[in-house]
Amino acid sequence: MINERNLPILATLLVFIMLYGFGMYEYKGFRDTLVFSNLLTDNAFLIITAIGMTFVILSGGIDLSVGSMIAFIGVLMAYLISNTGMHPLFAIGIALVVGVAFGAIMGVIIAFFEIQAFIVTLAGMFLFRGLAYLINLDAVPIDHPFITGLYDIYVPLPGRGGLTFIAMAMLVLLALGILIARRTRFGMSVYALGGDSHSAALLGVPVKKTIIKIYALSGFYSAMSGVIFAIYTGSAYPLAAVGVELDAIAAVVIGGTLLTGGVGYVFGTFLGGMIQGIIQTLITFDGSLNSWWTKLAVGGLLLFFILLQKGIVYWVKKRSAA
Amino acid sequence: ADLTIGFSQIGSESGWRTSETQSIKAEAERRGYDLKFSDAQQKQENQIKAVRSFIAQGVDGILLAPVVETGWDQVLKEAQRAKIPVVLIDRGVAADPSLYLTKVASDFKEEGSLAASWLAAKTNGRCNIVELQGSVGSSAAIDRKTGFDAVIGNFPNMTITRSQSGSFTRAGGKEVMESFLKAEGGAKNICALFAHNDDMALGAILAMKEAGVKPTKDILVVSIDAVPDIFKAMADGEANATIELNPHLGGPAFDAILASQDGKKVDKWIKANGPLYLPDTAAAEYAKRK
Amino acid sequence: MSDLVKDALEVKETSAVKETVEAAQSAVRPLLEIKHLSKSFTGVQALNDVSLQIQQGEIRALLGENGAGKSTLIKVLTGVYPRDSGEILLDGSLISASDSGHAQRLGISTVYQEVNLIPTMSVMENLTLQHQEKTFGLISWKKAEIRARELLAQVGLDIDPLRQLDTYSIAIQQLVAIARALSTQAKMLILDEPTASLDSDEIKQLFDLMARLKSEGLGIIFVTHFLDQVYSITDSITVLRNGECIGTFKTAELSRSDLVSHMVGKSLEDLAPTAHDHSIKRERTELLQLNNVGKQRYLQPLDLNIAAGEIVGVAGLLGSGRTELCELAYGSVKPDQGEVTLSNHSLTKSSLRRAIQVGMGYCPEDRKQDGIVAELSVRENMILALQASKGWWSPISIAEQQKLVEEMIQRLAIKTPDMDKPIGELSGGNQQKVILARWLITHPALLILDEPTRGIDIGAHHEIIQIIKELCEQGMGLLVASSELEELVMFAHRVVVMKDHHKVSELHGNEVSEQAILRTIAS
Amino acid sequence: MKKNNFLHKHQKTLAPLLSLVLIILITASVTPGFLSIRMVDGHLFGSLLDILHRATPTALVALGMAVVIGTRGIDLSVGAVIAISGAVTAVLTVNTDWPVWVVILCALGTGMLCGLWNGILVSVFNIQPIVATLILMVAGRGIAQMITEGQIVTFHSDVLDAIGNGYFLAFPIRVWIAIGMIALTVLVMRKTALGLFIEAVGANVRASRLVGIEARLLVLSAYVFSGLCAAMSGIILAADIRGADANNAGLWLELDAILAVVLAGASLAGGRIYLLLTIVGVLIIQTLTTAILTSGLPVQYNLVVKATIILAVLLVQSPKTRQWISDFFTKKKRAANSSTGKADTGKGSEKP
Ligand SMILES: Nc1ncnc2c1ncn2[C@@H]1O[C@H](COP(=O)(O)OP(=O)(O)OP(=O)(O)O)[C@@H](O)[C@H]1O
Ligand SMILES: Nc1ncnc2c1ncn2[C@@H]1O[C@H](COP(=O)(O)OP(=O)(O)OP(=O)(O)O)[C@@H](O)[C@H]1O
Ligand SMILES: [Mg+2]
Ligand SMILES: [Mg+2]
C-alpha cells in the first residue's frame, strides 16, 4: 500500500505528468526535449527560492522577503563586480554571506522578540528592495567573462534540449535541500517545530536556534537564487523578482506542503515549481489569450491543479479504506 | 506570406500598454498573420520564458517589448542561433545590436527633454517645478528624468523643488500631489508640474482642484503619453501639454521582419517619437482617439 | 484518626517529620536536590520555597490537588520555565537547565503532562527526535527504525512506527511518550501523570519498567492522582499544596487518609466508595437509542439504549472502540448505517448544534486538541457550548455568564485566580473541570463523557462522581467511557464491554463488577 | 501603585497607541505645519486630516482582514476585489443610467460574491487560505481588466464624487462611512456572540465544532464580510480618482492591511483580534506614508525608511522587549538590596 504521507507528492507528480502529456499531445513543439530543459532553466531561480521557503513553511513560518532578496543580491553582486572590480566568485561569496546574515537577523528577531514571521519578513521585503534602490536605481549589465563563460557549461540531451549550468546548479541545490530536510537533525527539528512548536520545545528541540537557522537557510537559498537570476539574465535590476515570494509559496503549497507546518517534502516543491512553469509555457504555446485572460488562466489553472491533487488524494484514501 | 509571429508583451499595467497591444493585434489580424501573444505580467523571467517558447515553437519572428533594458543577451543569442529575427518594441535593450533585427521605439530621454524645452520656453527659464516620477527603478522613469534634468540644467532659474514617485498611477499622482501642496503651503511656490505619465498628471489635477488650486493658471501641467483623457483635460483647460508615446508600432515592426526575410537591410532604430500636443488641437484629438 | 490529621497539619510537626526523613537519607548524597525553589506567574504563586531530595534508586510520588504546582515544579526543574529563586543540584553539582533539551543532556528525562509529541511526525521520528543515530553525518533511518521498535517493545507496544503519530489514540501516544523518555541515558526520570487514560495492563507494564530502572539506580519522580498506584510502586511521597511543600514521607509509613488530608488540607472521611445500587428506581423513559449504528472500518454496528436517569459505562481495552462509540453516539462522526435518536428526535443526519439543542453533550477524551480553546478565558470556554446552542444572535449577558461561571467554579472547586484567565494557563486537572462545567451548564438530557476524570485529583474526582449521580437522579442519562473500572463500577447501572471495535457484551444490574468486566474482556 | 496596575493591564492596548503618537510627534518635529488644522470652506484642512482621509480605504480593508485573520485565515485577494468593485462601479455608471445606489449595491454585491468564492474554497474545499485567496488575487485583476477592457474608465457622478472627496460636518464623508462601518462591526462583535465564535474557531476549530459552532458557515461569512469591506474600499478608491484603474487600484493594499492587523496585536495563527487597535495600526502606516511623501526625501529612500520604522515599532511593541526592560529594572532594584538577599540564600544552602 502507498504510504499515506507520500500521497500528496505522488498526486502532484501525477498532475505534472498529465499536464506534460497534454502539452505533448496538443502542441508539436512541446515534444522536444528543449521544452523540458527550458522548464528546468527558466524556473531554476523560482525553485531554488521555493526550496528555502519550504523549510520556512515546514516550520510553520513564512518568508516574504525572498523576492526582494533576489533583487538586492543581484544589484549587490553587480556593484561589487563592476564598481570594485572584484572577481565574480568573490562577489558571489560576499553576496551569499550577506544573504545568510540578513536571513539570520530576521530569524533572531522572530525567535528572540517573538514577533510573527509574516511581519518581520514583510519589513525585510521592504528593506531589501529599498537597499537595492540605494545601491543602484538603474538596471545594469554584468558582462564579466567569468559569468558569460558559465553559459558554455552545457550538457546536451537528445533532441534540441540540454542541461544548462543554471539547471544543474538548481538540481544540486535541490539534492542538498532534500538531504538537509530528511537526513539531518536540523531538518527533523524543522518538521517538529512546524508540527507543534510547544511540544517540540518540551522534546528538547532548540527552538530559537532552529528558527534562526531556518531563516538563515532561507536567506542562503534566496541569495543563491539572486546569484542564479543574475547569471540567468546577465544583469542586475532593482525591480527584479517582484512578487516571487507568492509564486514560491504557491510552488511549495502545490507541492503538497501544508502552510500550517510540519507536513511536506522538498521534492514536492520542485514539482510545484515545475507545474507553475508549465502553466506559463502552456499559455505561451497557446498564444491566443489576451492580458486579462492570461491572469484568469493562471489563477484558474492553479485552482484546477489544487483541486485535482486534492481529488486524487481523496480518491486514493477512499479506495484504500474500502 | 502568412507569418507566425510571437509577441512578448510586458503586461497590461496601463491604458497605454493595452492600446499598444490592441494596435499590434489589430495590425496582425489585418495582415492575416498568426500572432502568438504572451503577457509577462511585468516579469522579465516570464518574457524570457516566452521568447524561449517561441523559439521552441519555431515562429517566423518575435516582437519583444522588454520590461527592462538589460539581461537579454543570452536569449537573443538563442533566437539568433535559431535564425528567428527579433524586433524590439517601444524600448531598446543594452545588448549588442547585432543580436536583434531592429528596434521600433521612441526615446524616453528625448521625451523628457522635449517636455523640459517646452516648459523652459513657456516660463522663460524661470520656474519651480514639482515632479511626479514613475515607478522607482523603471527605465521610463529614469530616462525621462535624465532627459528632463539635462535640459533644465541649462537654466539656472529652473529647479525641481519636489520629486516623488507616483508609481505611474492616477491614485499615486493624486496622493503625492496632495502632499506636495501641503508641504509647499499651496501653489504659491510651484510654477509647474512635470509628470512622467498622463495618468499621474490627471490624478494631480484632481488634487489641485480639491485644494482650490487652478491647474494651468496657478500651476502649469506637462506630461507624457497622450492618452485620450489628457486631451479632454486639455480641452477643459486643465492641462497644458502632453508628448505622444506612439502605440501603433505593429506596422513598422512587421514590415521590418518582412524586409529581413527578403534579405533587405533594416535600420537598427526605427524611431517612433511622437509630437507634443497643445490645448489648441486637444478637442479634435480627443474626438479622434475616444 | 482525626488527631493524627490535625497533627500532620501543624506546620511544625510536618517539618519534624520531614527532617527525620531527610536525616535518614542524608547518609548518602542525594541524586537530586531542590532547595528553596520559588516560581510565580502573574497573579499566582505557583511554587513557594519548595525543597526536596531524591536518592538514587528511589521512586518518589509527587502528589497534590489540581493546581498544586506539580507540573510547574517539573517544568522549572527542567528549565522550561525560568525560576524566580532557589537552587537545583544534580549529583551534588549545581545545575541550571536552560531548556528541556539541556535538561535531557544533563541527565533528566521527562514525560510532561498531556501528550507532548509531534502529531504530524511518524512514531519513529518522534521516538528518535534529537537522538537520531547517524552514518556519515546523515541520519540513518534504518537504524532509527530498529531503535524505535526496540523502544516500543519496552513499553509493550506493537504498532507500526512508520505511521503518523496522530493516527493513534491518546493512550498509545502516551506510551510512545514514555518509550521516548527511556531512549536517553538518564539519571532522573520524571513522569507527569503518565497513567491517565492507560489501562491496567499498560500500567502494570509501566510499573515493571519503573522497577527495573529503579534497580539500575535511576531516581524517578512520578505524578499521579491514583492512590493505588502510589502505594503499589513508590518509595516515598512529597505532597504539594498551593505551591508549598507540605512534606516528604515514606510511603509505607503514611496511611491513605493522612495522605489525603495532607493533599486537601482537611480530612475527608467520606471518600471511601459508597456501596452503589445498580438498579434504577424510576420508570424507564428512553433517551438515547442507537439502532444498528456503525461505520465501516470504524465501529461494528451495535444497538444501545439509555434511559433517563441511567448511567451506562463503556469498558474495554486500549483501542477497543470506546471513543468511537462515543463519537458516533454524539454525532461528531456520522455513522454510515443505523439510526440515532435522542428523546424521539432523529439525529442521524442532523448537525451537532441541533443535537446539542435537543439535549446532547460530549466531553471529548483529548482535552488539548478537542476540548479547550487555549487562548480564550475560563469564562468564555465554559459558556461556549451553551452560547453555541443559542446561536450567535442571542448572546448571554456578561452578568449572566459571570453568575453561571462563578457557580461552577465554586461547585467544582476550580482553581483559578479569576474567570478571565486564559484556560491554557490553568493546571491540567482544572482545565478538565472547566470542560465538564461547559456541558453541565447546558443542562443536557444525555451527557457523553470520554475519560471524564482524566487528570483530576481525588477530591475533585469524588465531587464529580457525586455531581454525576445527582444529575442522574434528576433524570439525566449518561454514557461514560473510562479505563478506570473501579470508577465505572462505582456508578454505572449498566456496562457495555467493547472489544476490537464491536460490542461483546452488556452487563446489567448486579452483574456489574470489576471481575465480571475483566472476564468479559478476556473471553 | 494603582496606576502601575492599570499600565500593566493595558500594555497591549497602549503600545500601538504610543507608537502612533510617537510617529506623529517625530514627523511634526521634522515637518513644520504637520499638526496644524484650519477650517477651509467649512471643513477641516491639514495633514492630519489627509491621513484620516487616505487611511479610510485601508481601514475598511483591514477591518475585514482582521475578522478573517481571527478565523485563522488570510485574504490576499482584497486588492483584486477592490479593482473589481471599482471597475463595476465605473462601467455601470458610464454605460447605464441606473441610479447611483443601484450601482453601489451592484459593486458591493460583486465584492461579497468574490468573498463567497474565497469562503467556499477555504471552508468547503479545505484549500489553505493563503493559496485559495492567491487564486483570486491573480485572477481577480484579470476580471477587473476584462470589465474595463484594460483602460482607465473615467466617470462622473455627484454622489460618487461626494463619497470620494465630499465633506459632512467638517469631516470627509468617506471618513464617516468608515467610522460607521467600524462602529457597526465592533457593535456586532461585542454585542452578539459572533466575536466569541470567530475567535474560538480561529484558536481551535476542532473544539469549536464539537461544541456545536458551525465553523464552516462562520469562516465562509468572514470571507464574505472581507469581500464586502474590500468592495466599499474599492468604490471609495474609484470615486477618489473618478475612474476605475483595474491594474493599479488597491495594488499591495493587502499587505498594509495585514500589517495593521498584526500591529494591533493579533496573531496570524488565529484567536484574539482587536478591531479598534487595527484601525490604530492603519493610522500608523498611513502616517508613515504621508510623512515620507511630505518629507521631501529622495524616492529611493522611501522603502528603507518605511522598513526601518516598521521594524522599530515592532521591536518596541514586542512584549519581550517590555519584559527585558522590566527585568533589567527589577535586577537593578535587587542589586540595590542584594546584601540581605544573598545572606538568606547562603544560610539556606548551609543548613542541610
Ligand atoms: N503558564 C502559566 N501561566 C500562568 N499560570 C500558570 C501557568 N502554568 C501554571 N500556572 C498556574 O500555576 C498553578 C500550578 O499549576 P500546575 O500546572 O503546576 O498544577 P498541577 O499541580 O500540575 O495540577 P494538575 O494536577 O491539575 O496537573 C495553577 O494555579 C496554574 O493556574
Ligand atoms: N486511522 C486513524 N486515523 C485517525 N484517527 C484514528 C485512527 N485510528 C484511530 N483514530 C482515533 O483515535 C482515537 C482512539 O481510537 P481507539 O480505537 O484507540 O479508541 P478507544 O477504544 O477509545 O481507546 P482509548 O482507550 O485510547 O480511549 C479515536 O478518536 C479514533 O477516532
Ligand atoms: Mg499538572
Ligand atoms: Mg478513548
TrEMBL record, chain A:
Its main location: membrane. GO terms for molecular function: transmembrane transporter activity. It comes from Marinomonas foliarum. It holds the Pfam family BPD_transp_2. Belongs to the binding-protein-dependent transport system permease family. AraH/RbsC subfamily. This is Monosaccharide ABC transporter membrane protein (CUT2 family). It is found in: Cell inner membrane. InterPro entries: ABC_transp_permease. It comes from the Bacteria. CDD domains: TM_PBP1_transp_AraH_like. The keyword Magnesium does not apply. The chain crosses the membrane at residues 7-27, 39-57, 64-82, 88-110, 117-135, 162-181, 214-233, 297-316. Keywords: Cell membrane, Membrane, Transmembrane, Transmembrane helix. It is a multi-pass membrane protein. NCBIfam families: PRK11618.1. One of its GO terms (cellular component) is plasma membrane.
From TrEMBL, chain C:
Residues 32-267, 283-520 form the ABC transporter domain. One of its GO terms (molecular function) is ATP binding. It comes from Marinomonas foliarum. It is found in: Cell membrane. It is a peripheral membrane protein. This is Monosaccharide ABC transporter ATP-binding protein (CUT2 family). One of its GO terms (cellular component) is plasma membrane. The keyword Ubl conjugation does not apply. Keywords: ATP-binding, Cell membrane, Membrane, Nucleotide-binding, Repeat, Sugar transport, Translocase, Transport.
TrEMBL record, chain D:
The chain crosses the membrane at residues 52-69, 76-94, 100-122, 129-147, 167-189, 217-237, 249-266, 273-293, 299-316. Residues 333-352 are annotated as: Disordered. Keywords: Cell membrane, Membrane, Transmembrane, Transmembrane helix. It holds the Pfam family BPD_transp_2. Its main location: membrane. It is a multi-pass membrane protein. One of its GO terms (cellular component) is plasma membrane. InterPro entries: ABC_transp_permease (IPR001851). It is found in: Cell inner membrane. One of its GO terms (molecular function) is transmembrane transporter activity. The keyword Transmembrane applies. The keyword Transcription regulation does not apply. It comes from the Bacteria. Belongs to the binding-protein-dependent transport system permease family. AraH/RbsC subfamily. PANTHER family: ABC TRANSPORTER PERMEASE PROTEIN YPHD-RELATED-RELATED (PTHR32196), GALACTOFURANOSE TRANSPORTER PERMEASE PROTEIN YTFT (PTHR32196:SF19). This is Monosaccharide ABC transporter membrane protein (CUT2 family).
